[in-house]
Amino acid sequence: MALIGYARVSTADQKLALQLDALSAAGCDRIFDDYASGAKADRPGLAEALNYLRTGDTLVVWKLDRLGRSMSHLIEKVGELAACGVGFRSLTEQIDTTTSGGMLVFNIFGSLAQFERDLIRERTHAGLRAARERGSQGGRRPVVTPDKLRKARTYIAAGLTVREAAARLKIGKTALYKALESA
Hints:
- By secondary structure, the protein is of the alpha/beta class.
- It has 2 domains: 3-110, Resolvase, N-terminal catalytic domain (Rossmann fold); 146-182.
- The chain has helices spanning 17-25, 44-52, 71-83, 100-133, 146-157, 162-169, 173-182, and strands at residues 3-9, 30-35, 58-61, 87-90, 95-96.
- It has a 5-stranded mixed β-sheet, with helices on both faces.
- Strand 4 (87-90) and strand 5 form a beta hairpin.
- Helix 5 crosses helix 6 (162-169).
- The protein is elongated and about 85 Å long.
- The termini are far apart.
- This is Recombinase family protein.
- Residues 2-135 form the Resolvase/invertase-type recombinase catalytic domain.
- GO terms for molecular function: DNA binding; DNA strand exchange activity.
- Belongs to the site-specific recombinase resolvase family.
- Keywords: DNA integration, DNA invertase, DNA recombination, DNA-binding.
């Protein structure tokens, strides 16, 4: 039952000292670290720490954001740890999933993150529905406008190829072919 620490800073200019001191004071037997953005999936220090952990161990971080890129990513990582029989502890937020209270708090965070994602999805769908009701059409605007299509037909009738007509109108030949076929 070892405490294994993980520290991360985003750039080489930043210092790990604060995190390393806190993890050592918390009693971590071994500490792994990374100089990498939290947005990067490739974090060798984290991968090494995860490989080092054994059932009954606890992964300790200074702050929640040191482990996960987002709340959903953090929940996923802690879920993976729990499935392997590994606990998780965050020193700053005082969350410890090896205790029932710590697991409760962490699950509440997870529920709040899911609630936020659901609200965003609902607002997005409501906005799209309202825009459609006002006559707005989603998606990209067509490259070949009715005016460009009319000009392209004139050019082609005058003897230009579709490729030459598309070049003159500054549109792609594939888009012009599709517009000519559908009209």
